[in-house]
Protein backbone atom coordinates (compact mmCIF):
# COMPACT_ATOMS: atom_id res chain seq x y z
CA UNK A 1 0.00 0.00 0.00
CA UNK A 2 1.29 3.48 -0.79
CA UNK A 3 0.40 6.87 0.64
CA UNK A 4 -2.26 7.59 -1.93
CA UNK A 5 -3.99 4.29 -1.27
CA UNK A 6 -3.81 4.93 2.46
CA UNK A 7 -5.34 8.35 1.98
CA UNK A 8 -8.25 6.72 0.18
CA UNK A 9 -8.60 3.83 2.64
CA UNK A 10 -8.61 6.32 5.49
CA UNK A 11 -12.15 7.14 4.46
CA UNK A 12 -13.07 4.20 6.68
CA UNK A 13 -11.71 5.89 9.83
CA UNK A 14 -13.86 5.46 12.90
CA UNK A 15 -17.07 7.50 12.69
CA UNK A 16 -16.52 9.00 16.12
CA UNK A 17 -13.23 10.48 14.96
CA UNK A 18 -14.94 11.98 11.93
CA UNK A 19 -17.76 13.50 13.95
CA UNK A 20 -15.46 14.90 16.62
CA UNK A 21 -13.22 16.59 14.06
CA UNK A 22 -16.17 17.94 12.12
CA UNK A 23 -17.46 19.86 15.15
CA UNK A 24 -16.28 23.42 15.36
CA UNK A 25 -14.09 23.74 18.46
CA UNK A 26 -15.76 25.50 21.35
CA UNK A 27 -14.13 28.61 22.62
CA UNK A 28 -12.90 28.45 26.19
CA UNK A 29 -15.36 30.02 28.60
CA UNK A 30 -14.38 33.35 30.02
CA UNK A 31 -13.67 33.49 33.66
CA UNK A 32 -16.41 35.15 35.57
CA UNK A 33 -15.19 38.11 37.57
CA UNK A 34 -15.81 37.49 41.24
CA UNK A 35 -17.01 40.14 43.56
CA UNK A 36 -14.61 40.96 46.38
CA UNK A 37 -16.78 39.09 48.85
CA UNK A 38 -16.99 35.98 46.67
CA UNK A 39 -13.24 36.11 46.03
CA UNK A 40 -12.54 36.33 49.75
CA UNK A 41 -14.83 33.37 50.39
CA UNK A 42 -13.08 31.34 47.69
CA UNK A 43 -9.67 32.13 49.14
CA UNK A 44 -10.86 31.17 52.61
CA UNK A 45 -12.16 27.86 51.29
CA UNK A 46 -8.85 27.08 49.60
CA UNK A 47 -6.92 27.92 52.76
CA UNK A 48 -9.23 25.66 54.76
CA UNK A 49 -8.65 22.80 52.38
CA UNK A 50 -4.90 23.33 52.53
CA UNK A 51 -4.92 23.39 56.32
CA UNK A 52 -7.13 20.32 56.60
CA UNK A 53 -5.21 18.13 54.20
CA UNK A 54 -1.60 18.76 53.39
CA UNK A 55 0.30 16.20 51.35
CA UNK A 56 3.32 14.70 53.05
CA UNK A 57 6.31 16.86 52.14
CA UNK A 58 8.50 13.93 51.08
CA UNK A 59 6.01 12.47 48.58
CA UNK A 60 6.27 14.21 45.20
CA UNK A 61 3.13 15.24 43.37
CA UNK A 62 2.01 12.88 40.63
CA UNK A 63 0.64 13.59 37.16
CA UNK A 64 -1.93 11.30 35.58
CA UNK A 65 -1.40 10.36 31.99
CA UNK A 66 -3.21 7.93 29.75
CA UNK A 67 -0.94 7.10 26.86
CA UNK A 68 -2.79 4.09 25.72
CA UNK A 69 -6.52 3.91 25.49
CA UNK A 70 -6.11 0.55 23.91
CA UNK A 71 -8.66 -1.93 22.53
CA UNK A 72 -10.78 -1.80 19.47
CA UNK A 73 -12.51 1.51 19.87
CA UNK A 74 -13.05 1.27 23.60
CA UNK A 75 -12.27 -0.96 26.58
CA UNK A 76 -15.51 -2.89 26.82
CA UNK A 77 -16.82 -6.30 27.68
CA UNK A 78 -19.71 -8.17 26.08
CA UNK A 79 -21.11 -10.75 28.44
CA UNK A 80 -24.26 -12.77 28.91
CA UNK A 81 -23.95 -12.88 32.69
CA UNK A 82 -22.24 -10.70 35.28
CA UNK A 83 -20.15 -13.66 36.45
CA UNK A 84 -18.26 -13.45 33.17
CA UNK A 85 -16.74 -10.16 34.41
CA UNK A 86 -14.69 -12.07 36.98
CA UNK A 87 -10.99 -11.48 36.38
CA UNK A 88 -9.40 -13.09 39.44
CA UNK A 89 -8.34 -9.82 41.06
CA UNK A 90 -7.43 -10.51 44.71
CA UNK A 91 -8.58 -7.04 45.83
CA UNK A 92 -11.56 -6.94 48.18
CA UNK A 93 -13.37 -3.86 49.42
CA UNK A 94 -12.90 -4.91 53.04
CA UNK A 95 -9.09 -5.00 52.78
CA UNK A 96 -8.91 -1.60 54.48
CA UNK A 97 -5.92 -0.41 52.46
CA UNK A 98 -4.62 3.01 53.48
CA UNK A 99 -1.65 3.37 51.14
CA UNK A 100 -0.46 1.82 47.91
CA UNK A 101 2.96 2.07 46.25
CA UNK A 102 3.49 4.25 43.19
CA UNK A 103 6.32 3.65 40.74
CA UNK A 104 8.26 5.58 38.15
CA UNK A 105 8.16 3.48 35.00
CA UNK A 106 11.11 2.42 32.92
CA UNK A 107 9.02 2.73 29.79
CA UNK A 108 9.73 6.39 29.06
CA UNK A 109 13.48 6.05 29.63
CA UNK A 110 14.39 2.47 28.73
CA UNK A 111 17.83 1.23 29.67
CA UNK A 112 19.17 -1.25 27.10
CA UNK A 113 21.63 -2.80 29.55
CA UNK A 114 18.91 -3.45 32.12
CA UNK A 115 16.71 -4.89 29.41
CA UNK A 116 19.52 -7.18 28.25
CA UNK A 117 20.11 -8.41 31.79
CA UNK A 118 16.42 -9.20 32.24
CA UNK A 119 16.28 -11.00 28.90
CA UNK A 120 19.29 -13.15 29.82
CA UNK A 121 17.72 -13.93 33.17
CA UNK A 122 14.50 -15.13 31.55
CA UNK A 123 16.37 -17.20 28.98
CA UNK A 124 18.45 -18.84 31.74
CA UNK A 125 15.28 -20.01 33.45
CA UNK A 126 14.79 -22.15 30.34
CA UNK A 127 18.38 -23.34 30.50
CA UNK A 128 19.45 -21.07 27.65
CA UNK A 129 22.53 -18.91 27.97
CA UNK A 130 22.48 -15.84 25.76
CA UNK A 131 25.75 -14.25 24.66
CA UNK A 132 25.84 -10.51 24.02
CA UNK A 133 26.52 -11.22 20.38
CA UNK A 134 23.24 -13.13 20.16
CA UNK A 135 21.15 -10.24 21.47
CA UNK A 136 19.69 -7.56 19.20
CA UNK A 137 19.24 -4.10 20.72
CA UNK A 138 16.70 -2.19 18.66
CA UNK A 139 16.52 1.43 19.80
CA UNK A 140 15.50 4.32 17.52
CA UNK A 141 18.10 6.82 16.36
CA UNK A 142 17.15 9.72 18.65
CA UNK A 143 19.67 12.11 17.11
CA UNK A 144 18.00 11.66 13.74
CA UNK A 145 14.66 12.66 15.29
CA UNK A 146 16.25 15.60 17.08
CA UNK A 147 17.72 16.86 13.82
CA UNK A 148 14.37 16.55 12.03
CA UNK A 149 12.53 18.38 14.79
CA UNK A 150 15.15 21.14 14.76
CA UNK A 151 14.52 21.49 11.07
CA UNK A 152 10.83 22.02 11.81
CA UNK A 153 11.57 24.67 14.38
CA UNK A 154 10.23 22.58 17.25
CA UNK A 155 11.00 23.59 20.81
CA UNK A 156 13.26 21.43 22.96
CA UNK A 157 10.27 20.42 25.04
CA UNK A 158 8.32 19.20 22.02
CA UNK A 159 11.39 17.38 20.73
CA UNK A 160 12.07 15.60 23.98
CA UNK A 161 8.40 14.66 24.31
CA UNK A 162 8.57 13.07 20.89
CA UNK A 163 11.80 11.26 21.72
CA UNK A 164 10.27 9.90 24.91
CA UNK A 165 7.23 8.59 23.04
CA UNK A 166 9.24 7.02 20.25
CA UNK A 167 11.62 5.34 22.68
CA UNK A 168 8.78 4.07 24.79
CA UNK A 169 6.91 2.64 21.85
CA UNK A 170 9.73 1.14 19.85
CA UNK A 171 12.74 0.28 22.03
CA UNK A 172 13.16 -3.48 22.26
CA UNK A 173 15.86 -6.05 23.02
CA UNK A 174 15.49 -9.52 21.57
CA UNK A 175 17.18 -12.84 20.92
CA UNK A 176 16.39 -16.13 19.23
CA UNK A 177 17.99 -19.44 20.20
CA UNK A 178 17.19 -23.14 20.35
CA UNK A 179 13.63 -22.72 19.14
CA UNK A 180 12.87 -19.91 21.59
CA UNK A 181 12.35 -16.22 20.73
CA UNK A 182 12.75 -13.76 23.59
CA UNK A 183 11.77 -10.13 23.37
CA UNK A 184 11.55 -7.40 26.01
CA UNK A 185 9.96 -3.98 25.55
CA UNK A 186 10.40 -0.64 27.31
CA UNK A 187 7.81 -1.60 29.93
CA UNK A 188 9.96 -4.62 30.83
CA UNK A 189 7.42 -7.09 29.50
CA UNK A 190 9.11 -10.20 28.18
CA UNK A 191 7.46 -12.28 25.49
CA UNK A 192 8.71 -15.83 24.97
CA UNK A 193 7.56 -17.45 21.75
CA UNK A 194 8.20 -21.05 20.80
CA UNK A 195 8.90 -22.19 17.27
CA UNK A 196 6.64 -25.16 18.01
CA UNK A 197 3.97 -25.14 20.74
CA UNK A 198 4.96 -27.22 23.75
CA UNK A 199 2.43 -30.06 24.04
CA UNK A 200 0.33 -30.45 27.16
CA UNK A 201 -0.56 -34.01 28.20
CA UNK A 202 -4.04 -34.96 27.04
CA UNK A 203 -5.38 -35.41 30.56
CA UNK A 204 -4.77 -31.71 31.28
CA UNK A 205 -5.18 -30.12 27.86
CA UNK A 206 -8.28 -28.04 27.19
CA UNK A 207 -9.39 -25.46 24.65
CA UNK A 208 -10.73 -21.92 24.71
CA UNK A 209 -14.19 -22.97 25.84
CA UNK A 210 -12.98 -25.03 28.77
CA UNK A 211 -15.09 -25.29 31.90
CA UNK A 212 -13.67 -23.73 35.09
CA UNK A 213 -12.82 -27.24 36.33
CA UNK A 214 -10.87 -28.04 33.17
CA UNK A 215 -9.11 -24.67 33.33
CA UNK A 216 -8.13 -25.36 36.95
CA UNK A 217 -6.66 -28.73 36.03
CA UNK A 218 -4.63 -27.17 33.25
CA UNK A 219 -3.49 -24.37 35.58
CA UNK A 220 -2.34 -26.93 38.17
CA UNK A 221 -0.38 -28.79 35.52
CA UNK A 222 1.27 -25.61 34.23
CA UNK A 223 2.17 -24.56 37.76
CA UNK A 224 3.82 -27.91 38.45
CA UNK A 225 5.62 -28.04 35.12
CA UNK A 226 6.89 -24.44 35.14
CA UNK A 227 7.30 -23.78 38.84
CA UNK A 228 11.04 -23.35 38.45
CA UNK A 229 10.60 -20.81 35.66
CA UNK A 230 7.94 -18.91 37.60
CA UNK A 231 10.24 -18.59 40.59
CA UNK A 232 7.42 -17.63 42.97
CA UNK A 233 7.37 -18.37 46.69
CA UNK A 234 3.61 -18.66 47.02
CA UNK A 235 2.22 -18.72 43.49
CA UNK A 236 -1.44 -17.90 43.02
CA UNK A 237 -3.19 -19.03 39.88
CA UNK A 238 -5.84 -17.07 38.02
CA UNK A 239 -7.89 -18.90 35.40
CA UNK A 240 -9.97 -15.79 34.63
CA UNK A 241 -7.18 -13.77 33.06
CA UNK A 242 -8.04 -12.50 29.58
CA UNK A 243 -4.65 -13.60 28.35
CA UNK A 244 -3.70 -17.17 29.23
CA UNK A 245 -3.43 -18.62 32.71
CA UNK A 246 -1.96 -16.05 35.05
CA UNK A 247 0.36 -16.71 37.99
CA UNK A 248 1.44 -14.16 40.57
CA UNK A 249 3.06 -14.33 43.99
CA UNK A 250 1.08 -13.75 47.15
CA UNK A 251 2.82 -10.87 48.88
CA UNK A 252 3.63 -10.24 52.52
CA UNK A 253 0.74 -7.77 52.56
CA UNK A 254 -2.52 -7.24 50.68
CA UNK A 255 -0.94 -4.24 48.95
CA UNK A 256 1.98 -6.34 47.73
CA UNK A 257 -0.36 -9.06 46.51
CA UNK A 258 -2.36 -6.52 44.49
CA UNK A 259 0.84 -5.06 43.03
CA UNK A 260 1.96 -8.55 42.02
CA UNK A 261 -1.39 -9.34 40.46
CA UNK A 262 -1.25 -6.19 38.34
CA UNK A 263 2.44 -5.72 37.68
CA UNK A 264 4.50 -8.82 38.53
CA UNK A 265 2.87 -11.78 36.95
CA UNK A 266 3.35 -14.37 34.27
CA UNK A 267 0.78 -15.56 31.80
CA UNK A 268 1.11 -18.93 30.13
CA UNK A 269 -0.92 -18.88 26.94
CA UNK A 270 -2.19 -22.16 25.54
CA UNK A 271 -3.85 -22.65 22.19
CA UNK A 272 -7.15 -24.38 21.50
CA UNK A 273 -5.40 -27.74 21.87
CA UNK A 274 -4.13 -26.76 25.29
CA UNK A 275 -0.51 -26.56 24.07
CA UNK A 276 1.71 -23.74 25.32
CA UNK A 277 2.63 -21.33 22.54
CA UNK A 278 3.70 -18.11 24.27
CA UNK A 279 4.57 -16.83 27.72
CA UNK A 280 4.27 -13.20 28.81
CA UNK A 281 6.30 -12.23 31.85
CA UNK A 282 5.34 -8.86 33.36
CA UNK A 283 7.59 -7.21 35.86
CA UNK A 284 8.03 -3.89 37.59
CA UNK A 285 11.73 -4.62 38.09
CA UNK A 286 12.50 -1.85 35.66
CA UNK A 287 10.49 0.60 37.75
CA UNK A 288 11.62 2.73 40.64
CA UNK A 289 9.35 3.05 43.66
CA UNK A 290 8.45 6.68 44.35
CA UNK A 291 6.63 6.06 47.61
CA UNK A 292 3.59 4.68 49.40
CA UNK A 293 0.75 7.09 48.73
CA UNK A 294 -2.44 7.47 50.76
CA UNK A 295 -5.45 6.29 48.80
CA UNK A 296 -9.14 7.11 48.85
CA UNK A 297 -11.85 4.68 49.86
CA UNK A 298 -14.19 2.92 47.46
CA UNK A 299 -17.00 5.24 48.55
CA UNK A 300 -14.91 8.33 47.81
CA UNK A 301 -13.94 6.87 44.44
CA UNK A 302 -17.60 6.31 43.56
CA UNK A 303 -18.35 9.93 44.38
CA UNK A 304 -15.56 11.05 42.05
CA UNK A 305 -16.86 8.69 39.37
CA UNK A 306 -20.35 10.14 39.42
CA UNK A 307 -18.82 13.60 39.51
CA UNK A 308 -17.07 12.91 36.21
CA UNK A 309 -13.52 12.48 37.52
CA UNK A 310 -12.47 9.44 35.56
CA UNK A 311 -10.50 8.18 32.60
CA UNK A 312 -12.35 6.16 30.02
CA UNK A 313 -11.98 5.08 26.46
CA UNK A 314 -15.59 5.94 25.67
CA UNK A 315 -16.08 9.24 23.91
CA UNK A 316 -18.65 11.64 25.34
CA UNK A 317 -20.21 9.17 27.78
CA UNK A 318 -21.14 10.17 31.33
CA UNK A 319 -21.83 7.99 34.33
CA UNK A 320 -24.70 9.60 36.16
CA UNK A 321 -25.28 7.36 39.17
CA UNK A 322 -23.72 4.65 41.32
CA UNK A 323 -26.49 2.27 40.31
CA UNK A 324 -24.77 1.96 36.92
CA UNK A 325 -21.72 0.32 38.53
CA UNK A 326 -21.59 -3.45 38.06
CA UNK A 327 -18.13 -4.11 39.43
CA UNK A 328 -15.38 -2.32 41.38
CA UNK A 329 -11.75 -3.30 41.77
CA UNK A 330 -8.33 -1.82 42.47
CA UNK A 331 -5.81 -2.16 39.64
CA UNK A 332 -2.61 -0.63 38.35
CA UNK A 333 -2.39 0.90 34.90
CA UNK A 334 0.94 0.27 33.27
CA UNK A 335 2.61 -0.54 30.01
CA UNK A 336 4.37 1.19 27.18
CA UNK A 337 4.24 4.96 27.47
CA UNK A 338 3.33 5.22 31.13
CA UNK A 339 5.67 7.50 33.07
CA UNK A 340 4.08 6.82 36.43
CA UNK A 341 2.51 3.54 37.46
CA UNK A 342 -0.18 4.14 40.04
CA UNK A 343 -3.33 2.47 41.35
CA UNK A 344 -6.82 3.21 40.07
CA UNK A 345 -10.26 2.09 41.04
CA UNK A 346 -11.68 0.43 37.98
CA UNK A 347 -15.42 0.53 37.67
CA UNK A 348 -17.28 -1.54 35.13
CA UNK A 349 -20.58 0.05 34.20
CA UNK A 350 -23.24 -1.20 31.86
CA UNK A 351 -23.62 1.01 28.82
CA UNK A 352 -26.51 1.42 26.45
CA UNK A 353 -25.13 0.21 23.10
CA UNK A 354 -27.25 2.69 21.16
CA UNK A 355 -25.68 5.59 23.03
CA UNK A 356 -22.33 4.63 21.55
CA UNK A 357 -23.48 3.92 18.03
CA UNK A 358 -23.97 0.19 18.33
CA UNK A 359 -27.04 -1.91 17.78
CA UNK A 360 -28.25 -5.18 19.21
CA UNK A 361 -26.70 -6.79 16.14
CA UNK A 362 -23.26 -5.49 17.09
CA UNK A 363 -23.54 -6.84 20.62
CA UNK A 364 -25.07 -10.23 19.75
CA UNK A 365 -27.76 -9.49 22.30
CA UNK A 366 -25.19 -9.51 25.10
CA UNK A 367 -24.82 -6.89 27.82
CA UNK A 368 -22.14 -4.31 27.25
CA UNK A 369 -19.87 -2.99 30.00
CA UNK A 370 -17.20 -0.32 29.77
CA UNK A 371 -14.30 0.49 32.10
CA UNK A 372 -13.97 3.77 33.97
CA UNK A 373 -10.83 4.55 35.97
CA UNK A 374 -10.71 6.84 39.01
CA UNK A 375 -7.27 7.62 40.49
CA UNK A 376 -6.95 5.89 43.86
CA UNK A 377 -4.20 8.21 45.11
CA UNK A 378 -5.64 11.06 47.18
CA UNK A 379 -6.17 14.18 45.08
CA UNK A 380 -3.86 16.37 47.15
CA UNK A 381 -0.98 14.31 45.72
CA UNK A 382 -2.08 14.78 42.13
CA UNK A 383 -1.35 17.69 39.81
CA UNK A 384 -4.26 16.99 37.50
CA UNK A 385 -7.74 15.93 38.49
CA UNK A 386 -9.86 17.98 36.11
CA UNK A 387 -13.63 18.20 36.39
CA UNK A 388 -14.28 15.81 33.58
CA UNK A 389 -11.82 13.48 31.98
CA UNK A 390 -12.04 11.65 28.70
CA UNK A 391 -9.35 10.11 26.55
CA UNK A 392 -5.90 10.98 27.68
CA UNK A 393 -6.96 13.66 30.12
CA UNK A 394 -8.76 15.88 27.65
CA UNK A 395 -11.82 17.60 29.01
CA UNK A 396 -15.31 16.50 28.02
CA UNK A 397 -17.32 19.64 27.23
CA UNK B 1 -36.56 13.18 10.94
CA UNK B 2 -34.28 10.67 12.65
CA UNK B 3 -31.59 8.71 10.86
CA UNK B 4 -33.55 5.54 11.51
CA UNK B 5 -36.61 6.96 9.80
CA UNK B 6 -34.59 8.12 6.80
CA UNK B 7 -32.85 4.76 6.45
CA UNK B 8 -36.23 3.04 6.56
CA UNK B 9 -37.29 5.19 3.62
CA UNK B 10 -34.24 4.00 1.68
CA UNK B 11 -35.11 0.44 2.53
CA UNK B 12 -38.69 0.94 1.41
CA UNK B 13 -37.27 2.41 -1.83
CA UNK B 14 -39.10 5.64 -1.11
CA UNK B 15 -37.41 8.44 -3.15
CA UNK B 16 -38.16 10.97 -0.42
CA UNK B 17 -35.22 9.35 1.45
CA UNK B 18 -32.91 11.41 -0.74
CA UNK B 19 -34.76 14.66 -0.07
CA UNK B 20 -34.70 14.03 3.65
CA UNK B 21 -30.99 13.16 3.54
CA UNK B 22 -30.33 16.40 1.73
CA UNK B 23 -32.41 18.44 4.15
CA UNK B 24 -30.64 16.98 7.14
CA UNK B 25 -27.06 16.60 5.93
CA UNK B 26 -26.76 18.37 2.60
CA UNK B 27 -24.93 21.40 3.87
CA UNK B 28 -22.37 19.32 5.76
CA UNK B 29 -21.77 17.01 2.84
CA UNK B 30 -21.38 19.93 0.48
CA UNK B 31 -18.85 21.47 2.83
CA UNK B 32 -16.80 18.26 2.94
CA UNK B 33 -16.78 18.01 -0.84
CA UNK B 34 -16.00 21.68 -1.32
CA UNK B 35 -13.14 21.63 1.17
CA UNK B 36 -11.58 18.71 -0.62
CA UNK B 37 -12.12 19.86 -4.21
CA UNK B 38 -12.07 23.66 -3.69
CA UNK B 39 -14.62 23.76 -6.51
CA UNK B 40 -18.23 24.68 -5.76
CA UNK B 41 -19.79 23.16 -8.84
CA UNK B 42 -17.78 19.95 -8.46
CA UNK B 43 -18.87 19.81 -4.84
CA UNK B 44 -22.54 20.17 -5.76
CA UNK B 45 -22.17 17.37 -8.25
CA UNK B 46 -20.54 15.22 -5.62
CA UNK B 47 -23.30 15.94 -3.14
CA UNK B 48 -25.91 14.71 -5.59
CA UNK B 49 -23.85 11.66 -6.47
CA UNK B 50 -23.55 10.88 -2.79
CA UNK B 51 -27.29 10.45 -2.41
CA UNK B 52 -27.50 8.18 -5.43
CA UNK B 53 -24.59 6.11 -4.21
CA UNK B 54 -26.37 5.85 -0.87
CA UNK B 55 -29.53 4.76 -2.69
CA UNK B 56 -27.56 1.97 -4.33
CA UNK B 57 -25.93 0.91 -1.08
CA UNK B 58 -28.99 0.83 1.17
CA UNK B 59 -29.83 -2.04 1.27
CA UNK B 60 -27.77 -4.06 2.04
CA UNK B 61 -26.19 -1.45 4.30
CA UNK B 62 -28.43 -0.27 7.13
CA UNK B 63 -26.74 2.76 8.68
CA UNK B 64 -29.47 3.37 11.23
CA UNK B 65 -27.21 5.02 13.76
CA UNK B 66 -24.47 6.39 11.57
CA UNK B 67 -26.15 7.81 8.50
CA UNK B 68 -24.13 10.99 8.42
CA UNK B 69 -20.73 9.30 8.57
CA UNK B 70 -21.96 6.79 5.99
CA UNK B 71 -22.82 9.63 3.61
CA UNK B 72 -19.71 11.60 4.52
CA UNK B 73 -17.50 8.68 3.59
CA UNK B 74 -19.17 8.41 0.19
CA UNK B 75 -18.71 12.14 -0.37
CA UNK B 76 -15.07 11.96 0.61
CA UNK B 77 -14.35 9.08 -1.72
CA UNK B 78 -16.10 10.79 -4.62
CA UNK B 79 -14.17 14.00 -3.91
CA UNK B 80 -10.82 12.23 -3.87
CA UNK B 81 -11.62 10.37 -7.08
CA UNK B 82 -12.57 13.58 -8.80
CA UNK B 83 -9.35 15.28 -7.70
CA UNK B 84 -7.31 12.43 -9.15
CA UNK B 85 -9.26 12.12 -12.37
CA UNK B 86 -9.39 15.82 -13.09
CA UNK B 87 -5.92 17.16 -12.58
CA UNK B 88 -7.17 20.57 -13.63
CA UNK B 89 -8.65 20.94 -10.18
CA UNK B 90 -6.52 23.18 -7.99
CA UNK B 91 -6.55 20.61 -5.25
CA UNK B 92 -5.13 17.76 -7.30
CA UNK B 93 -1.57 18.74 -6.40
CA UNK B 94 -2.59 19.22 -2.77
CA UNK B 95 -4.05 15.71 -2.64
CA UNK B 96 -0.75 14.45 -4.01
CA UNK B 97 1.08 16.31 -1.23
CA UNK B 98 -1.13 14.69 1.40
CA UNK B 99 -0.53 11.28 -0.16
CA UNK B 100 3.17 11.82 0.29
CA UNK B 101 2.64 12.73 3.93
CA UNK B 102 0.56 9.61 4.48
CA UNK B 103 3.36 7.59 2.90
CA UNK B 104 5.54 8.72 5.82
CA UNK B 105 3.18 6.94 8.22
CA UNK B 106 3.66 3.58 6.59
CA UNK B 107 6.20 1.14 8.00
CA UNK B 108 9.31 0.32 5.97
CA UNK B 109 8.89 -1.97 3.00
CA UNK B 110 8.83 -5.61 3.93
CA UNK B 111 6.85 -4.81 7.05
CA UNK B 112 3.34 -5.65 7.96
CA UNK B 113 1.67 -3.17 5.64
CA UNK B 114 2.34 -5.41 2.65
CA UNK B 115 0.46 -8.28 4.24
CA UNK B 116 -2.15 -6.55 6.33
CA UNK B 117 -5.68 -6.19 5.11
CA UNK B 118 -6.56 -2.50 4.59
CA UNK B 119 -9.38 -2.76 7.13
CA UNK B 120 -6.97 -4.06 9.78
CA UNK B 121 -4.60 -1.22 9.01
CA UNK B 122 -7.33 1.36 9.45
CA UNK B 123 -8.35 -0.29 12.73
CA UNK B 124 -4.76 0.09 13.90
CA UNK B 125 -4.79 3.75 12.95
CA UNK B 126 -8.10 4.19 14.79
CA UNK B 127 -6.54 2.66 17.92
CA UNK B 128 -3.53 4.91 17.59
CA UNK B 129 -5.70 7.99 17.25
CA UNK B 130 -7.95 7.10 20.18
CA UNK B 131 -4.80 6.98 22.30
CA UNK B 132 -3.97 10.60 21.47
CA UNK B 133 -5.30 13.77 23.05
CA UNK B 134 -8.46 15.23 21.59
CA UNK B 135 -6.54 18.09 19.98
CA UNK B 136 -4.06 15.79 18.26
CA UNK B 137 -6.82 13.47 17.04
CA UNK B 138 -8.69 16.37 15.53
CA UNK B 139 -5.58 17.84 13.89
CA UNK B 140 -4.81 14.49 12.28
CA UNK B 141 -8.39 14.00 11.11
CA UNK B 142 -8.71 17.52 9.75
CA UNK B 143 -5.54 17.09 7.75
CA UNK B 144 -5.90 13.55 6.45
CA UNK B 145 -9.63 12.93 6.44
CA UNK B 146 -11.02 16.37 5.71
CA UNK B 147 -7.89 17.32 3.75
CA UNK B 148 -7.53 20.74 5.33
CA UNK B 149 -4.54 22.94 4.71
CA UNK B 150 -2.22 23.72 7.62
CA UNK B 151 -3.38 27.31 7.48
CA UNK B 152 -7.01 26.30 7.73
CA UNK B 153 -6.34 23.95 10.65
CA UNK B 154 -4.36 26.63 12.47
CA UNK B 155 -7.24 29.11 12.12
CA UNK B 156 -9.84 26.57 13.16
CA UNK B 157 -8.08 25.62 16.38
CA UNK B 158 -6.42 28.96 17.04
CA UNK B 159 -2.93 27.53 16.85
CA UNK B 160 0.19 28.71 15.10
CA UNK B 161 0.94 27.09 11.77
CA UNK B 162 4.27 26.00 13.18
CA UNK B 163 2.57 24.16 16.02
CA UNK B 164 0.23 22.42 13.59
CA UNK B 165 3.11 21.35 11.36
CA UNK B 166 5.19 20.04 14.25
CA UNK B 167 2.25 18.20 15.77
CA UNK B 168 1.39 16.53 12.48
CA UNK B 169 5.01 15.62 11.84
CA UNK B 170 5.26 14.08 15.28
CA UNK B 171 2.01 12.18 14.83
CA UNK B 172 3.12 10.75 11.50
CA UNK B 173 6.34 9.51 13.05
CA UNK B 174 4.56 8.06 16.06
CA UNK B 175 1.99 6.38 13.85
CA UNK B 176 4.72 4.83 11.77
CA UNK B 177 6.45 3.55 14.90
CA UNK B 178 3.12 2.25 16.20
CA UNK B 179 2.32 0.40 12.98
CA UNK B 180 5.81 -1.07 12.82
CA UNK B 181 5.48 -2.27 16.36
CA UNK B 182 2.06 -3.79 15.75
CA UNK B 183 3.51 -5.47 12.72
CA UNK B 184 6.38 -7.09 14.64
CA UNK B 185 3.95 -8.46 17.21
CA UNK B 186 1.79 -10.21 14.63
List the helices and strands and how they pair.
The complex is a heterodimer of chains A (397) and B (186).
Chain A lengths: L2 H7 L5 H8 L13 H17 L23 E4 L19 E6 L7 H13 L10 E4 L3 H10 L4 H15 L1 E6 L2 E6 L4 E9 L13 H14 L1 H4 L4 E4 L6 E5 L4 H10 L1 E6 L5 E6 L6 E7 L3 H9 L4 E2 L12 E9 L6 E11 L9 H4 L3 E9 L22
Antiparallel strand pairs in A: 1-15, 2-11, 2-14, 3-4, 4-5, 5-6, 6-10, 7-8, 8-9, 9-10, 12-15, 13-14, 14-15
Chain B lengths: L2 H9 L4 H22 L2 H18 L9 H19 L5 H13 L14 H13 L3 H11 L5 H8 L3 H25 L1
What brief labels describe this structure?
heterodimer; A: 397 residues; alpha+beta; eight-stranded antiparallel sheet; seven-stranded antiparallel sheet; 11 helices; globular; B: 186 residues; mainly alpha
Q: The biggest beta sheet of chain B, please?
A: none
Structural class of chain B: mainly alpha
Largest sheet: number of strands, sense, barrel closure of chain A:
8 strands, antiparallel
Largest interface: chains, residues each: A-B, 56 and 62 residues
Give a quick summary of the entry.
The complex is a heterodimer of chains A (397) and B (186). Chain A is of the alpha+beta class and 397 residues long.
Notes on the structure:
The complex is a heterodimer of chains A (397) and B (186). Chain A has 397 residues and is of the alpha+beta class. Chain A is 28% helix and 24% strand. In chain A, the strands form two sheets. Chain A has an eight-stranded antiparallel beta sheet with strand order 3-4-5-6-10-9-8-7. In chain A, strands 1, 2, 11, 12, 13, 14 and 15 form a seven-stranded antiparallel beta sheet that branches. The longest helix of chain A has 17 residues, at 36-52. The N and C termini of chain B lie far apart (45 Å). Chain B is mainly α and 186 residues long. In chain B, helix 2 packs across helix 3 (40-57) and helix 7 (134-144) crosses helix 9 (161-185). Residues 110-116 of chain B have low confidence and may be disordered. Chain B contains nine helices and no strands. Classes of the chains: A alpha+beta (397), B mainly alpha (186). The interface between A and B is large, with 56 and 62 residues.
Amino acid sequence: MNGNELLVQFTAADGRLILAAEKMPQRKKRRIALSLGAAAAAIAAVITIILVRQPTAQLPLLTISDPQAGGMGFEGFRVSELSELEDGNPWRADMNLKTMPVFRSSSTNPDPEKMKRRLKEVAESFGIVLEDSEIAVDFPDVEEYRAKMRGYGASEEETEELITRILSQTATVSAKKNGFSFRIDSAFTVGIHFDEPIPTPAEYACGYNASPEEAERLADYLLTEYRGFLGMKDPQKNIYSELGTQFYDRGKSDAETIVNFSLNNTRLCTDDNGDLFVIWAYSNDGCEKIGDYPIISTAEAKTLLVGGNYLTSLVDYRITGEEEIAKTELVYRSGIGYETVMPFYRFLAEVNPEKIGQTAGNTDGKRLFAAFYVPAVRSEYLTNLPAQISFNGSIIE
Amino acid sequence: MTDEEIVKLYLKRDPSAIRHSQNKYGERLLRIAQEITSDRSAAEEIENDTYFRAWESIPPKEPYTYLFTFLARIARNLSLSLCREQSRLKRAAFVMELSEEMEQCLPAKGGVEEEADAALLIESINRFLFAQTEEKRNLFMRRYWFLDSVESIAKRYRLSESKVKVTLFRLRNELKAYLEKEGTNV
